[in-house]
Amino acid sequence: MRRILTVAAFVAIGIAPGSVSAQEASVAPTINQNFKSADLDVEGWATRFTGESREAFNARHAVVKAMALKTGDAVADVGAGTGIYTRLFAQAVGPSGKVYANDIAPQFLAYIAQNAAKDGLKNVQTVQGGDRATNLPAASVDVVFHSDVYHHFEFPAVMNADIRRALKPDGRLFVLELAKTGGQTGHVRAPKEAVIAEIEKSGFRLVEQVNVPGLRDNYLLHFRKS
Known about the structure:
Elements lengths: L5 E2 L34 H8 L5 H4 L1 H8 L6 E5 L5 H10 L4 E6 L2 H14 L4 E5 L12 E7 L8 H11 E12 L13 H10 L2 E7 L7 E8 L1
Parallel strand pairs: 1-4, 2-3, 2-5, 3-4, 5-6
Antiparallel strand pairs: 6-8, 7-8
């Protein structure tokens, strides 16, 4: 019987008590309220995530190509939602690779697991995260990716440190984020320059802003664990 495994273990994030990160206050206390609801409308969100006007969806193939994943890579899709990128990553890394679909909403993870089983993708493993940790195993992945998720981190310093913990030495981090321009992007907390500064402060170095065809309202940043 085909099984998609769910990791339930909660791992320590390796931040010393009393440190700045450990004391970090929430920067957006209600930002994830909808995703914590017991009656989360998964199908409704799936439709929204795949809308024709959503750039992160329309440019998904170009984004994955730009990441240059290798056969056998272990990839974490943090804030995976309904698994738009999870599926593409699983195909890109092949049967010898592994994809962790990571989200705070168990309903999204169940949806991803169901679709992965339907598609015969045995290299997908779901991991439920929380506000302060991904709960990914330490030094377990070559690449971490998140799409329009950074502004959903209530505790960005803590989460950046936890992502660093989950990456292997010299691991790569790709951040696809909506540019803060006012108007429709009022929910986006920080401009690109602040995002870069926060992530670099957490032990990463910026490699480049990746030029991806089809991205105008979003940007893709490539970091390495330092």
